[in-house]
Amino acid sequence: MIIRRKAATGLVPKLVTAVIFAAILQLFAGEAMSLEPDWPASSFESAGINKADIVTFGARNQPASVDMPRHAPADLAFGIEPRASVIVVEIDGAVRAYPHQVVATHEVINDELGGVPIAVTYCRVCSASVVFDRRLDGAVTTFHLTGFLNNDNIVLYDSASERWWQQYDGTALNQKEMKDTLAEVGSKVMSFQRFKELHPNDGATVLLATEESKRPLAFGNAPVTPGGAGLPDGVDPLDRVVVIEDKAVPVSVLRDQEELQLGNLILQWQPGRNAAPDLFGKAQSDDVGDIMIYDAKRYGEEDVLLDQAYRIDLAHAFQRFVTGGTFELKGTIPDDPSRLDR
């Protein structure tokens, strides 16, 4: 973010220093600020965005998105730990793993898979991995970072119109008619080892590391501390939850029970995946495990692994953005579950 100031002829140097320092404090303290000068193509006149909820998270386009990603066959992608967390996307038979280490470093990967232009995004404040279709208003665009958070979630913009988009749910933030929402592409989160086991001979590929992503990520420098208003007792804002549509199951609950029923689905937890790198570093080295989802009607009879999209987010984000969402704190243990060797 560039701080613009007029030349101050005759001002005492100490006063100039104080003014600059105060501006920097305001910039990084999440104070309300003027947005229009840096976003001339955007409109903030609608009720779609409350400037009081906007805090600075960095400079525009920083970190830079990856717009020319490199890929390799999954079985030839060396240097990725088996327990490393990856985002998995499958479109028309083409499947690709996006290591969280790379996506978290850049936060936006503009890519193409199965002939579909996609943006693979990740918010470290929410630990939310969301994939969007990059086709907007009949044309292909790219997505980048505005440098702001809205309601503790990163805000994206598209390069064609410079409209702002909420990363968690793809909602348009700054246009007069709040009807547009980005089309989400289903994805999953799993260990790299699990990904290779599920896709041994189908041409699966993996996003390769960038030079920036080879450096350790920083933790503990979040500009906000998400609150827990409205969360059920016993659920911390930074707890990880498995999100399927409008239901959220704390990973800790699923890990303790190993498997539980959620409607027509059976959720099963298995060890073997490190946590995705959120900004807080909570339980970063914990084995948060892999999640498998099965058809409840056929569970115990056949090994029917469903192609069910799901996310693993932090609880505060689910509570804030999923209208009418509910937390499943106990779940239902399947009757006489079959401990299949999967």
Largest sheet: 5 strands, mixed
Instruction: Indicate the low-confidence ranges by residue numbers.
Output: 1-33, 337-342
Fold-level CATH name of the domain at 71-214: Rieske Iron-sulfur Protein
CATH classification class of the domain at 71-214: Mainly Beta
Question: Hey, roughly how much beta strand do the residues contain?
Answer: 25-35%
Q: Distance N terminus to C terminus?
A: 50 Å
**Structural class determined from secondary elements:** alpha+beta
**What oligomeric arrangement do these chains adopt?**
single chain
Helix-strand pattern? HEEEEHEEEEEEEEEEHEEEHEEEEHE
Known CATH architecture of the domain at 71-214: 3-layer Sandwich
Structure description:
With 342 residues, the protein is of the alpha+beta class. Among the domains are: 71-214, 3-layer Sandwich (Rieske Iron-sulfur Protein); 240-327, no CATH class. The chain is built from 5 helices and 22 strands. Helices cover 13% and strands 29% of the residues. The strands form 6 sheets. It has a 5-stranded mixed beta sheet with strand order 2-15-4-3-14. Strands 1-10-11-12 form a 4-stranded antiparallel beta sheet, with no helix packed on it. It has a 4-stranded antiparallel beta sheet with strand order 5-6-7-13. Residues 1-33 and 337-342 have low confidence and may be disordered. The chain has helices at residues 13-28, 100-106, 192-198, 251-257, 315-321, and strands spanning 54-56, 71-73, 85-91, 94-99, 108-113, 116-123, 128-133, 135-136, 139-140, 143-150, 154-158, 164-166, 184-185, 187-191, 205-207, 240-244, 247-250, 259-262, 265-270, 290-295, 311-314, 326-327.
